[in-house]
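Input/output pair, single chain:
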Amino acid sequence: MSFHPKKLLLSSFLLVFIVLSLMGTACSSNRPDPIVSGTELSMFITTDIHYIADSVHDNGSAFQKYWKTGDGRQLNYIDEIVSAFGSKVEKEKPDILIVSGDLTTNGEKESHLALAKKFKEIEEASGTSIYVIPGNHDISNPWARGFKEDKKFKVPSVDSSEFKDIYKDFGFSEAISRDNYSLSYLAAPSEDVWLLMLDTCEYYLNDKTNTPVTNGELGENTLKWIEKCSKLAKEKNARIVTVMHHNLYNHSSRIHYGFTLDNHINVENTFRDNGLNLVFSGHLHIQDIKYKGEEENRIYDIASSSMVMYPFQYGVLDYSPESGFDYKTDRVDIENWARENGKTDENLLNFATYSEDFFTNASFAKAYNVVAETGLYSVIEAGYMAETMKLLNLNYFRGTTGLIKEQIENSSGYKLWIAADQVEALEAMRAYILSMIPHNDIDNNKLQIK
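Output:
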Protein backbone atom coordinates (compact mmCIF):
# COMPACT_ATOMS: atom_id res chain seq x y z
CA MET A 1 0.00 0.00 0.00
CA SER A 2 1.43 3.40 -1.03
CA PHE A 3 0.91 6.78 0.66
CA HIS A 4 0.16 9.97 -1.26
CA PRO A 5 1.49 13.05 0.61
CA LYS A 6 -1.37 15.34 -0.52
CA LYS A 7 -4.03 12.78 0.37
CA LEU A 8 -2.40 12.21 3.75
CA LEU A 9 -2.31 15.96 4.39
CA LEU A 10 -5.97 16.26 3.36
CA SER A 11 -6.97 13.40 5.66
CA SER A 12 -5.14 14.99 8.57
CA PHE A 13 -6.84 18.31 7.89
CA LEU A 14 -10.26 16.67 7.82
CA LEU A 15 -9.59 14.90 11.11
CA VAL A 16 -8.60 18.16 12.79
CA PHE A 17 -11.66 19.88 11.28
CA ILE A 18 -14.00 17.20 12.63
CA VAL A 19 -12.52 17.44 16.14
CA LEU A 20 -12.80 21.22 16.17
CA SER A 21 -16.35 21.09 14.80
CA LEU A 22 -17.46 19.03 17.77
CA MET A 23 -16.80 22.02 20.00
CA GLY A 24 -17.22 24.95 17.60
CA THR A 25 -14.11 26.96 16.85
CA ALA A 26 -11.33 26.22 19.32
CA CYS A 27 -8.61 28.73 20.09
CA SER A 28 -5.46 28.03 22.05
CA SER A 29 -3.21 31.01 21.32
CA ASN A 30 -2.46 33.42 24.16
CA ARG A 31 -4.36 31.24 26.61
CA PRO A 32 -2.76 31.36 30.07
CA ASP A 33 -2.58 28.33 32.32
CA PRO A 34 -5.81 28.03 34.33
CA ILE A 35 -5.86 28.55 38.09
CA VAL A 36 -5.34 25.12 39.62
CA SER A 37 -8.21 23.09 41.04
CA GLY A 38 -9.05 23.61 44.68
CA THR A 39 -8.10 27.29 44.62
CA GLU A 40 -10.47 30.03 45.75
CA LEU A 41 -11.51 32.46 43.05
CA SER A 42 -12.66 36.10 43.12
CA MET A 43 -14.64 37.79 40.37
CA PHE A 44 -15.98 41.29 39.72
CA ILE A 45 -19.03 41.50 37.45
CA THR A 46 -20.21 44.69 35.80
CA THR A 47 -22.34 45.66 32.82
CA ASP A 48 -23.67 48.50 30.70
CA ILE A 49 -20.65 50.79 30.93
CA HIS A 50 -21.89 52.75 27.89
CA TYR A 51 -18.46 54.33 27.52
CA ILE A 52 -18.06 57.29 25.20
CA ALA A 53 -14.57 58.50 24.28
CA ASP A 54 -13.52 62.11 24.77
CA SER A 55 -12.62 62.23 21.09
CA VAL A 56 -16.27 61.65 20.15
CA HIS A 57 -17.57 64.81 21.84
CA ASP A 58 -16.46 68.29 22.88
CA ASN A 59 -18.69 68.51 25.97
CA GLY A 60 -20.67 71.18 24.13
CA SER A 61 -24.39 71.95 24.20
CA ALA A 62 -25.40 69.01 21.97
CA PHE A 63 -23.64 66.52 24.24
CA GLN A 64 -24.97 68.21 27.37
CA LYS A 65 -28.51 67.94 26.07
CA TYR A 66 -27.96 64.30 25.10
CA TRP A 67 -26.86 63.03 28.51
CA LYS A 68 -29.12 65.28 30.59
CA THR A 69 -32.26 64.11 28.78
CA GLY A 70 -31.23 60.46 28.74
CA ASP A 71 -32.12 57.59 31.05
CA GLY A 72 -29.94 58.61 33.99
CA ARG A 73 -26.53 57.54 32.71
CA GLN A 74 -23.86 59.87 34.09
CA LEU A 75 -22.02 60.21 30.77
CA ASN A 76 -20.60 63.60 31.73
CA TYR A 77 -18.30 61.79 34.19
CA ILE A 78 -17.91 58.51 32.32
CA ASP A 79 -14.12 58.68 32.21
CA GLU A 80 -13.86 59.35 35.93
CA ILE A 81 -16.29 56.56 36.81
CA VAL A 82 -14.41 53.98 34.73
CA SER A 83 -11.07 55.18 36.12
CA ALA A 84 -12.37 54.94 39.71
CA PHE A 85 -13.62 51.42 39.04
CA GLY A 86 -10.31 50.50 37.46
CA SER A 87 -8.56 51.79 40.58
CA LYS A 88 -10.78 49.52 42.71
CA VAL A 89 -9.83 46.55 40.56
CA GLU A 90 -6.14 47.43 40.83
CA LYS A 91 -6.35 47.63 44.63
CA GLU A 92 -8.42 44.50 45.27
CA LYS A 93 -6.97 42.44 42.41
CA PRO A 94 -9.81 40.01 41.69
CA ASP A 95 -8.82 37.06 39.54
CA ILE A 96 -11.49 37.87 36.95
CA LEU A 97 -13.46 40.88 35.73
CA ILE A 98 -16.57 40.14 33.65
CA VAL A 99 -18.31 42.80 31.54
CA SER A 100 -21.65 41.65 30.17
CA GLY A 101 -22.24 43.95 27.23
CA ASP A 102 -23.15 47.51 26.23
CA LEU A 103 -19.53 48.49 26.52
CA THR A 104 -20.15 51.72 24.58
CA THR A 105 -22.84 54.38 24.33
CA ASN A 106 -23.82 53.58 20.75
CA GLY A 107 -21.07 51.41 19.34
CA GLU A 108 -18.70 54.22 18.34
CA LYS A 109 -15.45 52.71 17.07
CA GLU A 110 -13.36 55.32 18.86
CA SER A 111 -15.14 54.51 22.12
CA HIS A 112 -14.42 50.80 21.70
CA LEU A 113 -10.74 51.49 21.03
CA ALA A 114 -10.44 53.83 24.01
CA LEU A 115 -12.20 51.39 26.37
CA ALA A 116 -10.05 48.47 25.22
CA LYS A 117 -6.99 50.60 26.02
CA LYS A 118 -8.36 51.19 29.53
CA PHE A 119 -9.02 47.46 29.95
CA LYS A 120 -5.42 46.73 28.97
CA GLU A 121 -4.14 49.21 31.56
CA ILE A 122 -6.35 47.62 34.24
CA GLU A 123 -5.14 44.12 33.40
CA GLU A 124 -1.49 45.15 33.47
CA ALA A 125 -1.84 47.02 36.77
CA SER A 126 -3.91 44.41 38.60
CA GLY A 127 -3.13 41.04 37.02
CA THR A 128 -6.90 40.58 36.64
CA SER A 129 -8.15 38.77 33.53
CA ILE A 130 -10.98 40.63 31.77
CA TYR A 131 -13.73 38.86 29.78
CA VAL A 132 -16.29 40.73 27.67
CA ILE A 133 -19.29 40.09 25.46
CA PRO A 134 -21.21 42.56 23.28
CA GLY A 135 -24.50 44.23 24.14
CA ASN A 136 -27.19 45.52 21.82
CA HIS A 137 -25.52 48.96 21.64
CA ASP A 138 -22.07 47.74 20.61
CA ILE A 139 -22.04 46.37 17.06
CA SER A 140 -23.21 47.77 13.69
CA ASN A 141 -25.05 50.52 15.51
CA PRO A 142 -26.70 53.01 13.11
CA TRP A 143 -27.07 55.46 16.00
CA ALA A 144 -23.31 55.90 16.50
CA ARG A 145 -22.91 59.66 16.90
CA GLY A 146 -20.36 62.29 17.71
CA PHE A 147 -21.12 65.69 19.25
CA LYS A 148 -19.64 69.07 18.45
CA GLU A 149 -20.98 72.35 19.80
CA ASP A 150 -24.74 72.25 19.13
CA LYS A 151 -24.57 69.54 16.45
CA LYS A 152 -24.44 65.75 16.43
CA PHE A 153 -23.12 63.74 13.49
CA LYS A 154 -22.61 60.15 12.41
CA VAL A 155 -19.39 58.38 13.36
CA PRO A 156 -18.17 54.88 12.45
CA SER A 157 -19.39 51.90 14.44
CA VAL A 158 -17.81 48.40 14.34
CA ASP A 159 -18.93 45.11 12.86
CA SER A 160 -18.72 41.80 14.71
CA SER A 161 -15.29 41.01 13.27
CA GLU A 162 -13.88 44.37 14.38
CA PHE A 163 -15.42 43.93 17.83
CA LYS A 164 -13.74 40.57 18.24
CA ASP A 165 -10.41 42.00 17.07
CA ILE A 166 -10.55 45.06 19.35
CA TYR A 167 -11.34 42.90 22.39
CA LYS A 168 -9.27 39.88 21.36
CA ASP A 169 -7.24 40.08 24.57
CA PHE A 170 -10.36 40.14 26.74
CA GLY A 171 -11.77 36.68 26.33
CA PHE A 172 -11.70 35.76 22.67
CA SER A 173 -8.04 34.74 22.43
CA GLU A 174 -8.31 32.84 25.74
CA ALA A 175 -11.35 30.84 24.64
CA ILE A 176 -11.16 27.05 24.70
CA SER A 177 -14.16 26.98 22.36
CA ARG A 178 -16.04 29.46 20.20
CA ASP A 179 -19.52 29.23 18.77
CA ASN A 180 -19.55 29.29 14.96
CA TYR A 181 -22.85 31.18 14.85
CA SER A 182 -22.24 34.09 17.23
CA LEU A 183 -19.53 35.77 19.27
CA SER A 184 -20.20 33.36 22.14
CA TYR A 185 -17.20 31.60 23.66
CA LEU A 186 -16.19 29.30 26.49
CA ALA A 187 -13.25 30.25 28.70
CA ALA A 188 -11.50 28.28 31.43
CA PRO A 189 -9.70 30.75 33.69
CA SER A 190 -9.79 28.15 36.46
CA GLU A 191 -9.82 24.37 36.46
CA ASP A 192 -12.84 24.55 38.78
CA VAL A 193 -14.82 27.44 37.25
CA TRP A 194 -15.44 28.09 33.56
CA LEU A 195 -17.13 31.07 31.93
CA LEU A 196 -19.81 30.59 29.28
CA MET A 197 -19.88 34.02 27.63
CA LEU A 198 -22.97 34.21 25.42
CA ASP A 199 -23.63 36.67 22.62
CA THR A 200 -27.42 37.14 22.70
CA CYS A 201 -27.66 40.23 20.47
CA GLU A 202 -29.32 40.62 17.07
CA TYR A 203 -27.08 43.30 15.57
CA TYR A 204 -27.34 41.58 12.16
CA LEU A 205 -30.84 43.15 11.95
CA ASN A 206 -29.69 46.71 12.59
CA ASP A 207 -29.14 47.65 8.95
CA LYS A 208 -32.66 46.53 8.05
CA THR A 209 -34.33 48.39 10.90
CA ASN A 210 -31.93 51.37 11.00
CA THR A 211 -31.96 51.07 14.78
CA PRO A 212 -29.97 49.10 17.38
CA VAL A 213 -32.33 46.15 17.86
CA THR A 214 -33.09 45.73 21.54
CA ASN A 215 -34.30 42.12 21.40
CA GLY A 216 -32.06 39.12 21.93
CA GLU A 217 -32.08 35.36 21.48
CA LEU A 218 -29.85 32.30 21.34
CA GLY A 219 -30.18 30.34 18.10
CA GLU A 220 -30.68 26.59 17.90
CA ASN A 221 -27.12 25.99 16.71
CA THR A 222 -25.77 28.01 19.62
CA LEU A 223 -27.94 26.03 22.05
CA LYS A 224 -26.44 22.82 20.66
CA TRP A 225 -22.97 24.27 21.12
CA ILE A 226 -23.88 25.14 24.73
CA GLU A 227 -24.79 21.49 25.31
CA LYS A 228 -21.33 20.46 24.10
CA CYS A 229 -19.69 23.03 26.35
CA SER A 230 -21.64 21.72 29.33
CA LYS A 231 -20.69 18.12 28.51
CA LEU A 232 -17.01 19.06 28.32
CA ALA A 233 -17.21 20.93 31.63
CA LYS A 234 -18.76 17.90 33.33
CA GLU A 235 -16.03 15.66 31.95
CA LYS A 236 -13.44 18.02 33.45
CA ASN A 237 -15.41 18.43 36.71
CA ALA A 238 -15.68 22.20 36.15
CA ARG A 239 -18.57 24.44 37.18
CA ILE A 240 -19.92 26.93 34.65
CA VAL A 241 -20.87 30.55 35.30
CA THR A 242 -23.07 31.75 32.44
CA VAL A 243 -22.92 35.38 31.30
CA MET A 244 -25.10 37.17 28.73
CA HIS A 245 -26.44 40.66 28.08
CA HIS A 246 -30.15 39.87 27.84
CA ASN A 247 -32.15 38.50 30.75
CA LEU A 248 -33.24 34.89 31.14
CA TYR A 249 -36.27 35.80 33.26
CA ASN A 250 -38.59 38.82 33.44
CA HIS A 251 -37.16 41.16 36.05
CA SER A 252 -40.07 43.56 35.65
CA SER A 253 -43.75 42.91 35.01
CA ARG A 254 -43.82 46.15 33.03
CA ILE A 255 -40.52 46.17 31.13
CA HIS A 256 -39.46 42.85 29.69
CA TYR A 257 -40.12 42.77 25.91
CA GLY A 258 -36.77 43.34 24.26
CA PHE A 259 -34.96 42.72 27.55
CA THR A 260 -35.82 39.10 28.33
CA LEU A 261 -34.62 36.70 25.61
CA ASP A 262 -37.26 36.18 22.92
CA ASN A 263 -36.78 32.40 23.18
CA HIS A 264 -36.20 32.36 26.94
CA ILE A 265 -38.29 29.20 27.44
CA ASN A 266 -36.07 27.16 25.10
CA VAL A 267 -32.97 28.68 26.63
CA GLU A 268 -34.15 27.94 30.17
CA ASN A 269 -34.83 24.32 29.20
CA THR A 270 -31.34 24.01 27.72
CA PHE A 271 -29.77 25.55 30.80
CA ARG A 272 -31.76 23.31 33.13
CA ASP A 273 -31.00 20.14 31.16
CA ASN A 274 -27.31 20.97 31.26
CA GLY A 275 -27.00 22.08 34.87
CA LEU A 276 -26.36 25.77 34.13
CA ASN A 277 -27.82 27.27 37.27
CA LEU A 278 -26.01 30.60 37.72
CA VAL A 279 -26.61 33.31 35.09
CA PHE A 280 -25.47 36.93 35.06
CA SER A 281 -27.17 39.44 32.76
CA GLY A 282 -27.54 43.21 32.34
CA HIS A 283 -29.43 45.33 29.79
CA LEU A 284 -32.21 46.47 32.16
CA HIS A 285 -29.91 48.68 34.32
CA ILE A 286 -31.48 47.52 37.60
CA GLN A 287 -30.16 45.25 40.35
CA ASP A 288 -32.51 42.28 40.59
CA ILE A 289 -32.36 38.53 41.24
CA LYS A 290 -34.95 36.14 39.85
CA TYR A 291 -35.03 32.37 40.07
CA LYS A 292 -37.19 29.43 39.07
CA GLY A 293 -37.29 25.79 40.13
CA GLU A 294 -36.93 23.85 43.32
CA GLU A 295 -33.74 24.36 45.27
CA GLU A 296 -31.99 21.27 43.89
CA ASN A 297 -32.77 22.32 40.29
CA ARG A 298 -33.01 26.09 40.60
CA ILE A 299 -31.69 28.58 38.05
CA TYR A 300 -30.71 32.06 39.25
CA ASP A 301 -30.61 35.03 36.88
CA ILE A 302 -28.81 38.00 38.43
CA ALA A 303 -29.47 41.22 36.51
CA SER A 304 -26.72 43.69 37.38
CA SER A 305 -27.26 47.44 37.49
CA SER A 306 -25.44 49.74 35.08
CA MET A 307 -21.91 50.75 35.97
CA VAL A 308 -22.61 54.41 35.03
CA MET A 309 -25.95 54.99 36.73
CA TYR A 310 -26.66 55.66 40.37
CA PRO A 311 -25.67 53.88 42.62
CA PHE A 312 -22.70 52.76 40.43
CA GLN A 313 -22.77 49.17 41.65
CA TYR A 314 -21.00 46.06 40.51
CA GLY A 315 -21.14 42.44 41.57
CA VAL A 316 -18.57 40.49 43.58
CA LEU A 317 -18.64 36.71 43.12
CA ASP A 318 -16.35 34.60 45.31
CA TYR A 319 -15.89 30.90 44.70
CA SER A 320 -14.71 28.44 47.35
CA PRO A 321 -14.26 24.71 46.69
CA GLU A 322 -15.80 24.05 50.12
CA SER A 323 -18.77 26.45 50.19
CA GLY A 324 -19.53 27.18 46.53
CA PHE A 325 -20.46 30.65 45.23
CA ASP A 326 -21.03 33.71 47.37
CA TYR A 327 -22.43 36.83 45.66
CA LYS A 328 -22.83 40.40 46.86
CA THR A 329 -22.75 43.92 45.41
CA ASP A 330 -20.35 46.76 46.05
CA ARG A 331 -20.13 50.35 44.85
CA VAL A 332 -17.48 52.35 43.05
CA ASP A 333 -15.98 54.89 45.46
CA ILE A 334 -15.65 57.85 43.12
CA GLU A 335 -15.19 60.40 45.91
CA ASN A 336 -12.19 58.62 47.40
CA TRP A 337 -10.67 58.17 43.93
CA ALA A 338 -11.12 61.90 43.27
CA ARG A 339 -9.33 62.83 46.52
CA GLU A 340 -6.50 60.39 45.88
CA ASN A 341 -5.97 61.85 42.40
CA GLY A 342 -6.08 65.49 43.45
CA LYS A 343 -9.36 66.36 41.73
CA THR A 344 -10.91 69.72 42.61
CA ASP A 345 -14.30 69.29 40.94
CA GLU A 346 -16.86 69.59 43.75
CA ASN A 347 -19.22 67.20 41.98
CA LEU A 348 -16.57 64.48 42.07
CA LEU A 349 -15.57 65.22 45.67
CA ASN A 350 -19.24 64.91 46.68
CA PHE A 351 -20.26 62.41 44.03
CA ALA A 352 -22.63 60.31 46.17
CA THR A 353 -24.82 63.35 46.89
CA TYR A 354 -24.42 64.89 43.44
CA SER A 355 -25.32 61.71 41.54
CA GLU A 356 -28.22 60.78 43.82
CA ASP A 357 -29.66 64.27 43.45
CA PHE A 358 -29.32 64.10 39.67
CA PHE A 359 -31.08 60.73 39.57
CA THR A 360 -33.86 61.51 42.04
CA ASN A 361 -34.54 65.04 40.81
CA ALA A 362 -35.13 63.70 37.31
CA SER A 363 -37.54 61.05 38.65
CA PHE A 364 -39.40 63.59 40.78
CA ALA A 365 -39.70 66.18 38.00
CA LYS A 366 -40.94 63.68 35.44
CA ALA A 367 -43.61 62.30 37.78
CA TYR A 368 -44.66 65.72 39.04
CA ASN A 369 -45.11 67.09 35.52
CA VAL A 370 -47.15 64.09 34.38
CA VAL A 371 -49.43 64.33 37.43
CA ALA A 372 -49.78 68.13 37.31
CA GLU A 373 -50.72 68.11 33.63
CA THR A 374 -53.88 66.11 34.41
CA GLY A 375 -55.28 69.05 36.38
CA LEU A 376 -56.83 66.57 38.82
CA TYR A 377 -54.46 67.04 41.75
CA SER A 378 -53.35 69.85 44.03
CA VAL A 379 -49.74 70.95 44.21
CA ILE A 380 -49.34 69.07 47.49
CA GLU A 381 -50.90 65.88 46.09
CA ALA A 382 -48.74 66.02 42.98
CA GLY A 383 -45.72 66.44 45.27
CA TYR A 384 -46.69 63.39 47.32
CA MET A 385 -47.07 61.28 44.17
CA ALA A 386 -43.78 62.49 42.71
CA GLU A 387 -42.00 61.77 46.01
CA THR A 388 -43.28 58.18 45.89
CA MET A 389 -41.97 57.80 42.35
CA LYS A 390 -38.60 59.26 43.35
CA LEU A 391 -38.11 57.00 46.36
CA LEU A 392 -39.24 53.85 44.56
CA ASN A 393 -37.12 54.47 41.47
CA LEU A 394 -34.04 55.19 43.58
CA ASN A 395 -34.34 51.89 45.43
CA TYR A 396 -35.44 49.95 42.35
CA PHE A 397 -32.16 50.59 40.57
CA ARG A 398 -30.06 49.64 43.58
CA GLY A 399 -32.16 46.55 44.36
CA THR A 400 -33.46 47.66 47.76
CA THR A 401 -37.20 48.23 47.23
CA GLY A 402 -37.89 45.41 49.71
CA LEU A 403 -36.44 47.58 52.48
CA ILE A 404 -38.95 50.39 51.90
CA LYS A 405 -42.03 48.41 50.85
CA GLU A 406 -43.99 49.09 54.03
CA GLN A 407 -42.99 52.75 54.03
CA ILE A 408 -44.16 53.16 50.44
CA GLU A 409 -47.45 51.33 50.89
CA ASN A 410 -48.32 53.53 53.88
CA SER A 411 -47.45 56.79 52.11
CA SER A 412 -49.98 59.36 50.92
CA GLY A 413 -48.42 59.39 47.46
CA TYR A 414 -48.75 55.64 46.96
CA LYS A 415 -52.41 55.70 48.04
CA LEU A 416 -53.06 58.42 45.47
CA TRP A 417 -51.39 56.30 42.77
CA ILE A 418 -53.54 53.31 43.74
CA ALA A 419 -56.67 55.42 43.48
CA ALA A 420 -55.65 56.73 40.04
CA ASP A 421 -56.68 53.55 38.23
CA GLN A 422 -59.20 55.43 36.07
CA VAL A 423 -56.89 58.30 35.06
CA GLU A 424 -55.79 57.43 31.53
CA ALA A 425 -52.98 59.98 31.43
CA LEU A 426 -51.35 58.29 34.44
CA GLU A 427 -51.83 54.71 33.28
CA ALA A 428 -48.28 54.07 32.05
CA MET A 429 -46.51 55.68 35.02
CA ARG A 430 -48.90 54.08 37.51
CA ALA A 431 -48.18 50.64 36.00
CA TYR A 432 -44.44 51.28 36.26
CA ILE A 433 -44.73 52.35 39.90
CA LEU A 434 -46.76 49.26 40.81
CA SER A 435 -44.26 47.04 39.00
CA MET A 436 -41.47 48.27 41.29
CA ILE A 437 -43.18 46.96 44.44
CA PRO A 438 -41.46 43.66 45.32
CA HIS A 439 -43.57 40.52 45.47
CA ASN A 440 -41.06 38.41 47.39
CA ASP A 441 -38.54 38.90 50.17
CA ILE A 442 -35.41 37.98 48.21
CA ASP A 443 -32.30 40.06 48.83
CA ASN A 444 -31.29 41.39 45.41
CA ASN A 445 -27.80 42.27 46.59
CA LYS A 446 -26.75 38.99 48.14
CA LEU A 447 -26.90 35.31 47.22
CA GLN A 448 -25.16 32.07 48.20
CA ILE A 449 -25.16 28.91 46.12
CA LYS A 450 -23.66 25.97 47.95
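The radius of gyration is 23 Å. Residues 350-435 form a domain with the Serum Albumin; Chain A, Domain 1 fold (CATH 1.10.246).
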